[in-house]
Amino acid sequence: MPSTLVIGGGPAGLAAAWAAAQVGDQVTLLDDNPALGGQIWRGGVPAAHQRFLDPSITVRTGVQIHSANQIPAADRLILATGTRERFLPFPGWTLPHILGAGGLQAMVKSGLPIAGKRVVITGTGPLLLAVGAYLRKRGAMVVLIAEQAPFSRIAQFTRELWREPAKLFQAAQLGWGLRYRADAWPIRADAGSITIQGHGKIPCDYVACGFGLVVNTELPALLGCAIDAGQVVTDSKQRTTIPHIYWAGAGSVDRSILEGQIAGFDLERARPLYPARDRALRFDRRIDQAFRLRSELSNLAAPDTIVCRCEDVPFGAVWQQRDWRSAKLQTRCGMGPCQGRICGPALEHLCGWPASSVRPPIFPTRLENLLDERR
Protein backbone atom coordinates (compact mmCIF):
# COMPACT_ATOMS: atom_id res chain seq x y z
CA MET A 1 0.00 0.00 0.00
CA PRO A 2 1.50 3.40 -0.97
CA SER A 3 2.24 5.73 1.93
CA THR A 4 1.54 9.47 2.13
CA LEU A 5 2.86 11.78 4.83
CA VAL A 6 1.12 15.13 5.29
CA ILE A 7 2.76 17.88 7.35
CA GLY A 8 0.28 20.51 8.48
CA GLY A 9 -3.17 20.03 9.99
CA GLY A 10 -4.99 23.13 8.68
CA PRO A 11 -7.64 23.10 5.92
CA ALA A 12 -5.14 22.20 3.17
CA GLY A 13 -3.45 19.44 5.16
CA LEU A 14 -6.73 17.92 6.31
CA ALA A 15 -8.11 17.96 2.75
CA ALA A 16 -4.88 16.42 1.41
CA ALA A 17 -4.85 13.63 4.00
CA TRP A 18 -8.53 12.83 3.34
CA ALA A 19 -8.02 12.77 -0.42
CA ALA A 20 -4.98 10.50 -0.13
CA ALA A 21 -6.97 8.13 2.09
CA GLN A 22 -9.75 8.01 -0.53
CA VAL A 23 -7.35 6.63 -3.14
CA GLY A 24 -6.17 3.91 -0.78
CA ASP A 25 -2.94 5.35 0.60
CA GLN A 26 -1.72 4.69 4.09
CA VAL A 27 -1.82 8.25 5.44
CA THR A 28 -0.05 9.89 8.37
CA LEU A 29 -0.79 13.51 9.32
CA LEU A 30 1.59 15.53 11.50
CA ASP A 31 0.84 18.91 13.07
CA ASP A 32 2.63 20.99 15.68
CA ASN A 33 -0.54 22.24 17.39
CA PRO A 34 -2.31 20.32 20.18
CA ALA A 35 -5.39 19.88 17.97
CA LEU A 36 -6.13 19.82 14.24
CA GLY A 37 -7.57 22.78 12.35
CA GLY A 38 -4.62 25.14 12.01
CA GLN A 39 -5.08 28.85 12.60
CA ILE A 40 -8.23 29.04 10.49
CA TRP A 41 -10.13 26.24 12.24
CA ARG A 42 -8.62 26.70 15.68
CA GLY A 43 -12.09 26.43 17.23
CA GLY A 44 -12.68 23.04 15.58
CA VAL A 45 -13.21 21.65 12.10
CA PRO A 46 -16.57 22.95 10.76
CA ALA A 47 -19.44 20.51 10.33
CA ALA A 48 -19.31 20.93 6.55
CA HIS A 49 -15.77 19.51 6.53
CA GLN A 50 -16.02 16.81 9.19
CA ARG A 51 -15.49 14.21 6.45
CA PHE A 52 -11.81 15.22 6.43
CA LEU A 53 -11.42 13.60 9.87
CA ASP A 54 -11.18 10.13 8.34
CA PRO A 55 -10.51 7.54 11.09
CA SER A 56 -8.17 5.61 8.77
CA ILE A 57 -5.68 8.52 8.93
CA THR A 58 -2.96 8.24 11.56
CA VAL A 59 -2.83 11.63 13.30
CA ARG A 60 0.05 12.87 15.44
CA THR A 61 -0.32 16.32 16.97
CA GLY A 62 2.25 18.29 18.95
CA VAL A 63 4.96 17.27 16.46
CA GLN A 64 7.29 20.02 15.24
CA ILE A 65 9.59 19.34 12.30
CA HIS A 66 12.89 21.16 12.79
CA SER A 67 15.05 19.47 10.12
CA ALA A 68 14.83 17.30 7.00
CA ASN A 69 16.32 14.31 8.80
CA GLN A 70 13.37 14.29 11.20
CA ILE A 71 10.78 13.60 8.47
CA PRO A 72 9.59 9.95 8.38
CA ALA A 73 10.01 8.09 5.10
CA ALA A 74 6.98 8.00 2.77
CA ASP A 75 6.21 7.47 -0.92
CA ARG A 76 4.62 10.93 -1.07
CA LEU A 77 5.19 13.97 1.09
CA ILE A 78 2.54 16.72 1.09
CA LEU A 79 3.58 19.97 2.75
CA ALA A 80 0.77 22.18 4.03
CA THR A 81 2.63 24.45 6.44
CA GLY A 82 0.39 27.44 5.72
CA THR A 83 1.07 31.12 6.25
CA ARG A 84 1.80 33.60 9.02
CA GLU A 85 1.08 37.29 9.54
CA ARG A 86 3.43 39.96 8.27
CA PHE A 87 4.36 42.66 10.78
CA LEU A 88 5.86 46.01 9.87
CA PRO A 89 7.73 47.90 12.61
CA PHE A 90 6.57 51.35 13.71
CA PRO A 91 7.40 53.30 16.87
CA GLY A 92 5.78 51.57 19.84
CA TRP A 93 4.83 48.36 18.02
CA THR A 94 6.47 46.24 20.75
CA LEU A 95 4.16 47.57 23.50
CA PRO A 96 2.06 44.90 25.26
CA HIS A 97 -1.27 46.01 23.79
CA ILE A 98 -0.05 45.69 20.16
CA LEU A 99 -0.86 42.20 18.88
CA GLY A 100 -1.20 40.45 15.56
CA ALA A 101 -4.71 40.57 14.10
CA GLY A 102 -4.90 36.80 13.77
CA GLY A 103 -2.99 36.47 17.03
CA LEU A 104 -5.56 38.45 19.01
CA GLN A 105 -8.36 36.45 17.43
CA ALA A 106 -6.61 33.20 18.39
CA MET A 107 -6.10 34.43 21.97
CA VAL A 108 -9.79 35.28 22.26
CA LYS A 109 -10.69 31.83 20.93
CA SER A 110 -8.43 30.42 23.64
CA GLY A 111 -10.20 32.34 26.40
CA LEU A 112 -8.83 35.91 26.52
CA PRO A 113 -11.63 38.19 27.85
CA ILE A 114 -12.45 40.78 25.19
CA ALA A 115 -15.96 41.94 26.10
CA GLY A 116 -16.06 45.70 26.60
CA LYS A 117 -12.46 46.21 25.44
CA ARG A 118 -11.69 48.97 22.93
CA VAL A 119 -9.93 47.51 19.88
CA VAL A 120 -8.35 49.23 16.88
CA ILE A 121 -7.63 46.94 13.94
CA THR A 122 -5.03 48.10 11.43
CA GLY A 123 -2.97 46.74 8.56
CA THR A 124 -4.29 45.37 5.30
CA GLY A 125 -6.42 42.71 3.69
CA PRO A 126 -9.76 40.93 4.19
CA LEU A 127 -8.52 39.42 7.46
CA LEU A 128 -9.09 42.77 9.16
CA LEU A 129 -12.85 42.59 8.52
CA ALA A 130 -13.04 38.97 9.61
CA VAL A 131 -11.21 39.74 12.87
CA GLY A 132 -13.36 42.81 13.47
CA ALA A 133 -16.58 40.84 13.00
CA TYR A 134 -15.36 38.06 15.28
CA LEU A 135 -14.21 40.38 18.07
CA ARG A 136 -17.42 42.40 17.96
CA LYS A 137 -19.42 39.17 18.20
CA ARG A 138 -17.45 38.40 21.38
CA GLY A 139 -18.38 41.77 22.88
CA ALA A 140 -15.39 43.91 21.91
CA MET A 141 -15.83 47.60 21.06
CA VAL A 142 -14.21 47.79 17.61
CA VAL A 143 -13.31 51.49 17.46
CA LEU A 144 -11.83 51.53 13.95
CA ILE A 145 -10.62 49.27 11.16
CA ALA A 146 -7.76 51.16 9.50
CA GLU A 147 -6.92 49.75 6.05
CA GLN A 148 -3.68 51.00 4.48
CA ALA A 149 -4.78 50.40 0.87
CA PRO A 150 -6.06 53.46 -1.04
CA PHE A 151 -9.81 53.92 -1.32
CA SER A 152 -9.58 53.77 -5.12
CA ARG A 153 -8.17 50.24 -5.07
CA ILE A 154 -10.69 49.06 -2.46
CA ALA A 155 -13.54 50.50 -4.53
CA GLN A 156 -12.29 48.84 -7.71
CA PHE A 157 -11.92 45.49 -5.96
CA THR A 158 -15.42 45.81 -4.50
CA ARG A 159 -16.88 46.55 -7.94
CA GLU A 160 -15.21 43.42 -9.32
CA LEU A 161 -16.90 41.28 -6.65
CA TRP A 162 -20.11 41.20 -8.73
CA ARG A 163 -18.48 38.16 -10.36
CA GLU A 164 -18.37 36.50 -6.92
CA PRO A 165 -21.79 37.32 -5.38
CA ALA A 166 -21.27 34.92 -2.47
CA LYS A 167 -18.04 36.65 -1.50
CA LEU A 168 -19.65 40.08 -1.93
CA PHE A 169 -22.44 39.07 0.42
CA GLN A 170 -19.93 37.64 2.92
CA ALA A 171 -17.89 40.87 2.87
CA ALA A 172 -21.03 42.94 3.39
CA GLN A 173 -22.02 40.78 6.37
CA LEU A 174 -18.57 41.05 7.97
CA GLY A 175 -18.35 44.80 7.51
CA TRP A 176 -21.90 45.68 8.56
CA GLY A 177 -21.82 48.25 11.36
CA LEU A 178 -18.01 48.43 11.56
CA ARG A 179 -16.15 51.73 11.12
CA TYR A 180 -13.90 50.88 8.17
CA ARG A 181 -11.55 53.47 6.68
CA ALA A 182 -9.11 53.17 3.76
CA ASP A 183 -5.90 55.23 3.36
CA ALA A 184 -5.24 54.75 7.09
CA TRP A 185 -2.21 53.15 8.74
CA PRO A 186 -0.43 53.21 12.13
CA ILE A 187 2.04 56.04 12.79
CA ARG A 188 3.03 55.25 16.37
CA ALA A 189 1.76 53.51 19.48
CA ASP A 190 1.87 54.79 23.04
CA ALA A 191 0.67 53.19 26.24
CA GLY A 192 -3.09 52.83 25.89
CA SER A 193 -3.35 54.39 22.42
CA ILE A 194 -2.50 54.19 18.73
CA THR A 195 -2.00 57.06 16.30
CA ILE A 196 -3.53 56.38 12.88
CA GLN A 197 -2.79 58.39 9.73
CA GLY A 198 -5.70 60.75 9.13
CA HIS A 199 -7.45 59.87 12.40
CA GLY A 200 -5.09 61.06 15.11
CA LYS A 201 -4.44 59.48 18.48
CA ILE A 202 -7.07 56.88 19.44
CA PRO A 203 -7.36 55.49 23.00
CA CYS A 204 -7.67 51.70 23.02
CA ASP A 205 -7.06 48.57 25.06
CA TYR A 206 -5.76 46.46 22.16
CA VAL A 207 -4.42 47.04 18.66
CA ALA A 208 -4.81 44.12 16.25
CA CYS A 209 -2.25 44.66 13.51
CA GLY A 210 -1.35 42.64 10.41
CA PHE A 211 -0.01 43.57 6.98
CA GLY A 212 -1.04 40.54 4.99
CA LEU A 213 0.32 37.00 5.05
CA VAL A 214 3.71 35.41 4.47
CA VAL A 215 3.98 31.85 3.15
CA ASN A 216 5.87 29.45 5.44
CA THR A 217 8.45 28.32 2.89
CA GLU A 218 11.18 27.30 5.34
CA LEU A 219 10.54 23.54 5.26
CA PRO A 220 10.08 23.19 1.48
CA ALA A 221 13.19 25.34 0.95
CA LEU A 222 15.14 23.13 3.35
CA LEU A 223 14.05 20.09 1.32
CA GLY A 224 15.30 21.66 -1.90
CA CYS A 225 11.98 22.77 -3.42
CA ALA A 226 12.22 25.81 -5.67
CA ILE A 227 10.89 29.07 -4.21
CA ASP A 228 9.99 32.05 -6.39
CA ALA A 229 8.84 35.45 -5.09
CA GLY A 230 7.97 33.96 -1.70
CA GLN A 231 5.88 31.13 -3.19
CA VAL A 232 6.63 27.42 -3.53
CA VAL A 233 6.86 26.55 -7.24
CA THR A 234 4.29 23.85 -8.18
CA ASP A 235 2.73 22.37 -11.31
CA SER A 236 -1.00 21.87 -11.94
CA LYS A 237 -1.02 18.76 -9.70
CA GLN A 238 0.60 20.72 -6.82
CA ARG A 239 3.91 18.90 -7.34
CA THR A 240 7.00 20.84 -6.36
CA THR A 241 10.31 20.67 -8.22
CA ILE A 242 11.17 17.64 -6.06
CA PRO A 243 9.17 14.77 -7.69
CA HIS A 244 7.65 13.11 -4.60
CA ILE A 245 6.97 16.36 -2.68
CA TYR A 246 3.69 18.27 -3.04
CA TRP A 247 2.66 21.68 -1.70
CA ALA A 248 -0.78 23.04 -0.81
CA GLY A 249 -2.44 25.81 1.15
CA ALA A 250 -1.00 29.31 0.71
CA GLY A 251 -4.19 31.26 0.11
CA SER A 252 -7.87 31.49 1.00
CA VAL A 253 -9.67 28.63 2.72
CA ASP A 254 -11.47 27.61 -0.48
CA ARG A 255 -8.24 27.55 -2.47
CA SER A 256 -6.37 25.73 0.31
CA ILE A 257 -8.97 22.95 0.44
CA LEU A 258 -8.92 22.54 -3.35
CA GLU A 259 -5.11 22.50 -3.46
CA GLY A 260 -5.03 19.93 -0.68
CA GLN A 261 -7.48 17.64 -2.46
CA ILE A 262 -5.60 17.97 -5.76
CA ALA A 263 -2.32 17.10 -4.01
CA GLY A 264 -3.86 14.10 -2.26
CA PHE A 265 -5.97 12.60 -5.06
CA ASP A 266 -4.66 10.62 -8.01
CA LEU A 267 -4.60 12.43 -11.35
CA GLU A 268 -8.00 11.13 -12.49
CA ARG A 269 -9.80 12.51 -9.42
CA ALA A 270 -7.69 15.66 -9.18
CA ARG A 271 -8.08 16.98 -12.73
CA PRO A 272 -11.82 17.92 -12.43
CA LEU A 273 -10.87 20.21 -9.52
CA TYR A 274 -8.38 22.26 -11.55
CA PRO A 275 -10.88 24.88 -12.86
CA ALA A 276 -12.23 25.67 -9.37
CA ARG A 277 -8.68 25.85 -7.96
CA ASP A 278 -7.59 28.16 -10.78
CA ARG A 279 -10.57 30.47 -10.19
CA ALA A 280 -9.72 30.62 -6.48
CA LEU A 281 -6.09 31.37 -7.38
CA ARG A 282 -7.12 34.23 -9.68
CA PHE A 283 -9.33 35.65 -6.92
CA ASP A 284 -6.46 35.52 -4.43
CA ARG A 285 -4.25 37.35 -6.91
CA ARG A 286 -6.86 40.10 -7.23
CA ILE A 287 -6.81 40.42 -3.44
CA ASP A 288 -3.00 40.67 -3.46
CA GLN A 289 -3.17 43.40 -6.07
CA ALA A 290 -5.87 45.39 -4.28
CA PHE A 291 -4.16 45.22 -0.89
CA ARG A 292 -0.51 45.52 -1.92
CA LEU A 293 1.57 47.52 0.54
CA ARG A 294 1.96 51.23 -0.10
CA SER A 295 5.38 52.92 -0.18
CA GLU A 296 4.66 55.09 2.88
CA LEU A 297 4.87 52.00 5.09
CA SER A 298 8.59 51.76 4.34
CA ASN A 299 9.13 54.99 6.29
CA LEU A 300 7.32 54.07 9.51
CA ALA A 301 10.33 52.80 11.47
CA ALA A 302 12.50 55.39 13.23
CA PRO A 303 16.23 54.70 13.83
CA ASP A 304 15.49 53.58 17.41
CA THR A 305 12.50 51.40 16.45
CA ILE A 306 13.16 47.76 17.27
CA VAL A 307 12.97 45.61 14.12
CA CYS A 308 14.25 42.32 15.55
CA ARG A 309 12.29 41.66 18.70
CA CYS A 310 14.23 38.53 19.62
CA GLU A 311 17.64 40.26 19.68
CA ASP A 312 16.48 43.87 20.40
CA VAL A 313 18.05 45.21 17.22
CA PRO A 314 16.98 48.77 16.25
CA PHE A 315 16.35 49.79 12.67
CA GLY A 316 19.24 52.26 12.77
CA ALA A 317 21.70 49.38 13.23
CA VAL A 318 20.27 47.43 10.30
CA TRP A 319 19.44 49.78 7.44
CA GLN A 320 23.08 50.67 6.79
CA GLN A 321 23.97 47.02 6.13
CA ARG A 322 24.27 45.90 2.50
CA ASP A 323 22.05 42.80 2.67
CA TRP A 324 20.22 40.36 4.98
CA ARG A 325 23.31 38.20 5.54
CA SER A 326 25.40 41.20 6.53
CA ALA A 327 22.68 42.36 8.92
CA LYS A 328 22.67 38.96 10.61
CA LEU A 329 26.44 38.83 10.95
CA GLN A 330 26.84 42.42 12.19
CA THR A 331 23.77 42.83 14.40
CA ARG A 332 22.39 39.31 15.08
CA CYS A 333 19.14 40.42 13.46
CA GLY A 334 17.13 37.29 12.62
CA MET A 335 19.23 34.98 14.82
CA GLY A 336 16.82 34.75 17.77
CA PRO A 337 14.18 32.13 18.59
CA CYS A 338 11.87 33.08 15.70
CA GLN A 339 14.76 32.69 13.22
CA GLY A 340 13.76 35.76 11.21
CA ARG A 341 10.10 34.87 10.80
CA ILE A 342 9.09 38.31 12.10
CA CYS A 343 11.93 40.62 11.08
CA GLY A 344 12.74 38.85 7.80
CA PRO A 345 9.53 39.78 5.92
CA ALA A 346 9.59 43.22 7.55
CA LEU A 347 13.11 43.96 6.31
CA GLU A 348 12.25 42.59 2.89
CA HIS A 349 9.68 45.39 2.65
CA LEU A 350 11.74 48.06 4.41
CA CYS A 351 15.07 47.39 2.71
CA GLY A 352 14.24 45.20 -0.28
CA TRP A 353 16.31 42.29 1.04
CA PRO A 354 15.16 38.80 0.05
CA ALA A 355 15.39 36.13 2.74
CA SER A 356 18.73 34.35 3.09
CA SER A 357 19.22 30.60 2.90
CA VAL A 358 17.40 28.33 5.35
CA ARG A 359 19.37 26.14 7.72
CA PRO A 360 18.29 23.56 10.29
CA PRO A 361 16.94 23.71 12.87
CA ILE A 362 14.12 25.83 11.44
CA PHE A 363 12.52 25.96 14.90
CA PRO A 364 14.21 26.16 18.31
CA THR A 365 14.68 22.66 19.66
CA ARG A 366 16.39 20.76 22.43
CA LEU A 367 20.00 19.75 21.88
CA GLU A 368 19.03 16.15 22.65
CA ASN A 369 16.78 16.16 19.57
CA LEU A 370 19.72 17.09 17.37
CA LEU A 371 21.88 14.43 19.03
CA ASP A 372 19.18 11.80 18.37
CA GLU A 373 19.50 12.47 14.62
CA ARG A 374 23.20 11.59 14.70
CA ARG A 375 22.67 8.22 16.34
Structure notes:
By secondary structure, the protein is of the alpha/beta class. It has 3 domains: 155 residues, FAD/NAD(P)-binding domain (3-Layer(bba) Sandwich); 114 residues, FAD/NAD(P)-binding domain, CATH 3.50.50; 75 residues, no CATH class. Helices cover 32% and strands 20% of the residues. The chain has 13 helices and 19 strands. It has a 5-stranded parallel β-sheet with strand order 3-2-1-4-17, covered by helices on one side. A hairpin with a 2-residue loop joins strand 15 and strand 16. Helix 2 runs parallel beside helix 3 and helix 7 packs antiparallel against helix 9. The mean pLDDT is 91.
> What is the CATH top level name of the largest domain?
Alpha Beta
Average pLDDT over all residues: 91
Q: How far apart, in Å, are the first and last alpha carbons?
A: 29 Å
Query: What's the shape?
Result: globular
Using only C-alpha atoms, the radius of gyration works out to 21 Å
Number of DSSP strand runs: 19
CATH superfamily grouping of the largest domain:
FAD/NAD(P)-binding domain
CATH topology of the largest domain: FAD/NAD(P)-binding domain
Strand order, main sheet: write it out. Answer: 3-2-1-4-17
Number of H- or I-type helical stretches? 13
